[in-house]
Amino acid sequence: MKPLVAALLVCAAAAHAAPGDRTADTIFVNGRIVTLDAKSSVRKAMAVKDGRVVALSDSAGAPDLKDWEGRNTRIVDLKGRTAVPGLIDSHIHAIRAALSFATEVNWIGARSLDEALGRLRAAAAVARPGDWLIVAGGWTPEQFREKRRPSQAELAAAAPGNPVYVQLLYDWAILTPKGLQALGIAEDKDVPANGRLERDAAGRPTGGVAGSPGTIVALFAKLPKPTLEQQVEGTKKFFAELNRLGLTGVIDPGGFGMYPAAYQALFKVWREGGLTLRVAYSYFAQDRGRELDDFKAMTQLMPMGLGDEWLRFNGLGENVFWGAYNVDAPDDAARERLFETLRWAAQNRMSVNIHWNNDRSVGVLLDAFERVDRETPIAPLRWAIAHLNDASPESLGRMKSLGVAWAVQDATMYYEGERQLKEKGADAVRRMPPLVTAKKIGVRIGAGTDAHRVSSYNPWAALQWMQDGKTVGGAALRDASEAPSREDALRIYTLGSAWLAHAERERGSLEVGKLADFAVLSKDYLTVPVGEIGTIESVMTVVGGRIVYPPQR
Fold it and tell me: What pTM was computed for the model?
């Protein structure tokens, strides 16, 4: 155990026993507990019993909590550190990321290409000859000092005995010669539909593969799949990694290739009581042309809200109809199919967290929402639009009228801000995303990352970006007028996301009666310089009163 963590976990037996119904399991003392209650209270001590907050104190030593002490009560000294409600990512592909986390090479947070290649070399040193080394995403050239992608030669030199696959977002990947050979790719015709092999000025293949999201998804699907045991291991490791960063909950919108079999590792960990993170998961339409039929079949024995405090079904996620997914101008038939699917979801009391990128076309979606709302009010169902970084005041006003929330992530503007600047211009990106405007209008907001294929899962990087509007490469794009206060940003990442999970009465703030989900931070989020917010980690993460990070022996 790290010395810092050991210093935090100072336990002492109580001097006297209290009645059984007044005995806390743990009392956390000498902290700076940011409650996020209605009064924005900051307390100094907290008693927890049966996984819930039972008392809070304004005294560091908490003499007023003595009645909660019993012979077996543990006293944990927070050593003056700041504790915040556990963070909840409102839109993260955590279940999919976890499946391969134990078998992938992670470039998230690497500050240079040399550091990234070093991680590949380290993985190759322990891998068996012929084992695949896969970087599935979560990086961008802008995060590297070199500001460029790796070359095939660099990848092959880092892992000469292994096939290597590296993916960037959903429009490019690169493979080493061993990787291309293993997948049988030698010419353009060997690449999945709409894709092509990139070539240099002399016409020689570079190892890069360019194409549509469908191309890259199909290419990734050709890679060897982890075994169930590896998927279970990856799930535990990835959730522990999220705990390390202070996350205690996620809302998962599904994703490409997430058929029922992809959820079995998660279900196994849940059945065995091994979850360290609360998961609200949605189902993503998989088969084009069968969307509504599949939803009907899947949810007959999986009604909205099925589950417990650790794992719960949260409705339809991200893609509800392929004809309107990443399509700015769906035809009349597609619009009608979209409406029919949404109407069915409303009739069956399903939440919907739907992906939409551009304000120029979001009227298509809002028109469908309004048609549904005339038949079945959707406000009680907690529907949300994810992404929509350039939301206009008019669109936000329509969302407010419908009771539709907004799930905002840092993925596009933090990792692709320079691309957005080229495509939309400086005037547009100055207000992307308009978080302060949305708050003034009254739209509910939940925060997240959209990790891990297109971005990092680090919530503190997202919280820093919410403050300074800078890209991972350091370009300051958003105007300060759309930057929320630190407390507002934290509320978006806790209570806002909890609302989207139908759980704001249970978590998102630290109040008597709520679940004891919180993180003790390495730095004080409310006072540390803005440029250091992204470096914050959790030194102790607690879920339901149980310390889940660092792992307890």
Answer: 0.93
